[in-house]
């Protein structure tokens, strides 16, 4: 367990090194001229979705091959379906 004096000393060193690097933070910032993020509508929304293990495994395998996180691959695939206006051809037997 780290002692309180060690943590205090580390905190002091961090503050000194930040000051030495010219990383001085203002005590107050003026946001009166700030504007809304123009890309806010393009941000992702977190949801909960239930997927079967085989589907997740499929995207995880591709993820390892291409180096893109599997959740991003799923999003890209779904976005492509939406852009291409793909419809599911489903028939019950």
Short description:
48% of the residues lie in helices and 0% in strands. By secondary structure, the chain is mostly helical. It has a domain at 51-86.
Can you characterise this structure?
The chain has 93 residues and is mainly α. The chain has a domain at 51-86. 48% of the residues lie in helices and 0% in strands. It has 3 helices and no strands. Helix 2 (53-66) crosses helix 3. The longest helix has 17 residues, at 4-20. The mean pLDDT is 83.
The residue ranges in which pLDDT falls below 50 over 5 or more consecutive positions are none
- Tell me the β content: under 5%
Radius of gyration: 24 Å
Rounded mean pLDDT is: 83
Order of helices and strands: HHH
The number of helical runs is 3
Largest sheet: none
Helix content: 40-55%
Structural class by helix and strand composition: mainly alpha
Q: First CA to last CA: what distance?
A: 64 Å
Shape: elongated
The number of E-state strands comes to: 0
